[in-house]
Design brief:
The protein is mainly alpha-helical and 77 residues long. The chain has one domain. Helix content is 62%, strand content 0%. It has three helices and no strands. The longest helix is centred in the C-terminal third of the chain and has 18 residues.
């Protein structure tokens, strides 16, 4: 996985934190990952829906494994 770091204004950060809490995201990384995937799928039309779901699921598994949590989706065999 690649790491992305950037700076945002405090007001935007506060609004993002409110959205994360309201919509149940686990944190900023998940929020921005979901936003990027949705943009690539719906606006830029760069990822077909099946690939989006597979990439998002893989990313969730990676985050959960790093946090020591169990994965809700079984691995493909």
């Amino acid at each position: 996985m690649q790491k992305v770091n950037f700076v945002i204004y405090n007001q935007l950060g506060d609004q993002i934190d409110e959205a994360i809490e309201k919509w149940g995201y686990s944190g900023r990384a998940e929020f921005f990952r979901a936003l990027a995937i949705e943009f690539l799928q719906k606006q830029a039309h760069l990822l077909p829906p099946k690939e989006v779901i597979e990439e998002y699921t893989k990313a969730i598994r990676m985050v959960q494994s790093n946090q020591g949590k169990e994965c809700f989706w079984p691995e493909k065999k």
